[in-house]
């Protein structure tokens, strides 16, 4: 990803700099099947839009993701589409 940014800006790629960038990934609930990726994407968009951080940092996402909340969100989405059909 970072290399692509350098290429788009037509800047020389500084591999030493790129390797110094910390890769931090917040711990988030993982889907347990191959069918619910859409629910997970919608859930994360929902969370982001309702909790837009002033500035992003790894620490402000630590308590963002809640498995019980995800389950409620999933049930609400399924119920919504059941009413529409």
TrEMBL record:
The keyword Protease applies. The keyword Oxidoreductase does not apply. Belongs to the peptidase C48 family. It comes from the Eukaryota. Keywords: Hydrolase, Protease, Thiol protease. This is Sentrin-specific protease. Coiled coil: none annotated. One of its GO terms (biological process) is protein desumoylation. Residues 24-77 form the Ubiquitin-like protease family profile domain. GO terms for molecular function: cysteine-type peptidase activity. SUPFAM superfamilies: Cysteine proteinases. It holds the Pfam family Peptidase_C48.
């Amino acid at each position: 990803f970072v290399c692509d940014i350098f290429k788009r800006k037509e800047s020389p790629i500084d591999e030493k700099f790129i390797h110094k960038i910390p890769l931090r990934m917040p711990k988030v609930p993982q889907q347990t099947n191959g069918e619910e990726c859409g629910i997970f994407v919608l859930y994360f968009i929902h969370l982001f839009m309702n909790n837009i951080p002033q500035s992003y940092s790894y620490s402000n996402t630590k308590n963002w993701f809640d498995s019980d909340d995800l389950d409620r969100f999933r049930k609400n989405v399924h119920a919504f589409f059941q009413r529409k059909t």
